[in-house]
Design a protein that fits this description.
By secondary structure, this protein is an alpha/beta fold. The protein is 30% helix and 24% strand. It has three domains: 142 residues, 3-Layer(aba) Sandwich (Rossmann fold); 227 residues, Rossmann fold; 99 residues, ANL, C-terminal domain (GMP Synthetase, Chain A, domain 3, 2-Layer Sandwich), CATH 3.30.300.30. It contains 15 helices and 26 strands. A hairpin with a 7-residue loop joins strand 9 and strand 10.
Length: 532
């Protein structure tokens, strides 16, 4: 079947994303734009800093279309550098702060970066990675250091701002619409990072699509927690972009600490939390969590599936549901959400946002029947422009993009993820969807988290292996837990779907955006700690 959203793409998608800051400054100049993490900027002050940084970049020779790599944690400097780069006409390239020097060098070289803005550790990594590259001096990227003095040919962030202010001019945007705005590097289905190219059109369209929901995810009166890493598209556009679009207030946190962020939510009067499942798992274990979160109007979850058992636990704890969404870097990012659905269902990723179409197709590119799984294909004005540099592997000639994600739609049209096409486990020719098995495993009261991967099997070709993390203080030992899980699987799953091996571990490896790094599980390492 096909599931389609309303076709009402928004006209504001023709502008420049940085215009949102200027518009918010005009509407609510004195309203706080950024707080937390030492930041205290009104919308008027933020707009002035964005102007100054844009002018400073232009004085350094950063021209329209140049790529500016941003290797910064959640901070006022990152927000200013992000919107400032866009206002200068450049392309922002947010970088995962956990990247190694080699990975930083790969991105800087592949993007052809004109500038790198980073704190000293990441800047040192970039400098080291570029030292061995035979690049003419006039092609070497400018290095801008945040939070420290500059040395040699480097520029201090504060000096770039000061030089821009001294220019004494208002920077007018010269790019927008189909022009490239943001490039985010993602491994996708390969081990080699590739840059997903997002235009101003795509980013702005997705903001307007989400704001067409009833209720909208963010309102002008909201105070929004920004603790998810801003190098990830969910936080960058789905949270920060939404704050700028509405003129709300952002509360910055540079890392997630369960007790610390709960106190921040309470003390800062946070009303809106864009989160990920590991955040909610950690909060649910904290004493006083319900009281600290009592003032939050909207809880959102993305980046990874929210297990049905956790959904129920959180609803009991919070007295209201956590709204789950689904999206991709390539869709800027939101495709669907349970916001606005008549009934929020555990395990569901809801329905497409207005202006986004979805088809669920089988391996023959035919639409599946309701209840049958297939690959999600997406079409809408929020889609990316393909991968850097040539736009390859983008939407097809009819505007459809194959996501590689598997889902089904129930009789109401609500969507449910079942896994990734590449993560499908093929047991004796039968499809096993990891999400289906994981949902059964986390239904056990002593299991906090579970992940399922394929392992080779001499008889069936592939078999199901499960990694499970016990809840804190669980009474059952590893052997008892395995026995209980075997009984649970026997009662809820066909025999070929049962895990042939259950490894009890102390933790699962996660990316900074909250997804379980299954490639590390398949590799047998990556931070997984055995516990029996």
């Amino acid at each position: 079947m096909a599931t389609a959203g309303r076709q009402d793409s928004q006209g504001s998608a023709r502008g420049n994303l940085a215009d949102l800051v200027r518009e918010a400054a005009a509407r609510v100049p004195d309203r706080p734009a950024l707080t937390g993490g030492g930041a205290a900027l009104s919308w008027a002050a933020l707009d002035a800093d964005v102007d100054a940084f844009a002018a400073g970049l232009q004085r350094l020779g950063v021209q329209a279309g140049a790529r500016v790599v941003l290797a910064l944690d959640n901070s006022a400097e990152l927000v200013v550098a992000y919107f400032g780069s866009l206002r200068a006409g450049a392309v922002a390239v947010p970088l995962n702060t956990a990247y190694t020097p080699a990975e930083i060098g790969t991105v800087v070289r592949d993007a052809g970066a004109r500038a790198v803005v980073a704190r000293p550790p990441a800047l040192a990594a970039a400098r080291s990675a570029l030292a061995d590259v035979d690049t003419p001096p006039d092609r070497q990227p400018l290095l801008v250091v945040a939070g420290a003095d500059a040395s040699g040919a480097e520029r201090a962030f504060a000096q770039v701002l000061a030089d821009g202010r001294n220019a004494g001019r208002r920077v007018e945007t010269s790019t927008g619409g189909e022009d490239l705005a943001v490039m985010i590097y993602t491994a996708g289905t390969t081990s080699v990072p590739k840059g997903a190219m997002l235009s101003h059109r795509a980013l702005l369209a997705n903001l307007d699509q989400c704001l067409a929901l009833d209720p909208p995810p963010v309102t002008a009166e909201d105070v929004v927690l920004l603790v998810l890493p801003l190098f990830h598209i969910y936080a960058l556009n789905g949270a920060l972009g939404m704050v700028a679009r509405t003129g709300a207030t952002a509360v910055l946190a540079d890392r997630f600490d369960p007790a610390g962020t709960l106190a921040l939510v309470r003390d800062a009067g946070v009303t809106n939390v864009p989160g990920a499942p590991p955040m909610y798992v950690a909060w649910a274990e904290q004493d006083g969590a319900a009281e600290a979160l009592a003032g939050v109007r909207t809880f959102l979850s993305g980046s990874a599936p929210l297990p049905a058992a956790l959904f129920d636990r959180l609803r009991d704890l919070l007295g209201r549901p956590v709204h789950e969404g689904y999206g991709l870097t390539e869709t800027a990012p939101v495709v669907s959400t349970t916001l606005g659905t008549p009934r929020v269902k555990p395990g569901s990723i809801g329905r497409p946002v207005p202006g986004v179409e979805i088809q669920i197709l089988d391996e023959d590119a035919e639409e599946v029947e309701p209840g049958d799984p297939g690959e999600i294909h997406v079409r809408g004005p929020n889609l990316f422009s393909g991968y850097w540099p040539d736009g390859s592997r983008g939407p097809d000639e009819d505007g459809w993009y194959a996501t590689g994600d598997l889902a089904y739609a129930d009789e109401d049209g609500d969507l449910f993820l079942v896994g990734r096409l590449k993560e499908l486990v093929l047991v004796s020719g039968f499809n096993v969807y990891p999400r289906e098995v994981e949902d059964v495993l986390v239904a056990h009261p002593d299991v906090a988290e579970a992940a399922v991967v394929a392992v080779p099997d001499p008889v069936t070709g592939e078999a199901v292996k499960a990694f499970v993390v016990p809840v804190s203080g669980a009474d059952a030992g590893p052997d008892d837990l395995r026995g209980g899980l075997a009984e649970l699987c026997a009662s809820r799953l066909a025999r070929f779907k049962w895990p042939t091996e259950v490894e009890v571990v102390g933790s699962l490896p996660h990316s900074l955006s909250g997804k379980v790094a299954k490639r590390l599980l398949r590799g047998g390492g990556g931070g997984v700690t055995a516990d029996g």
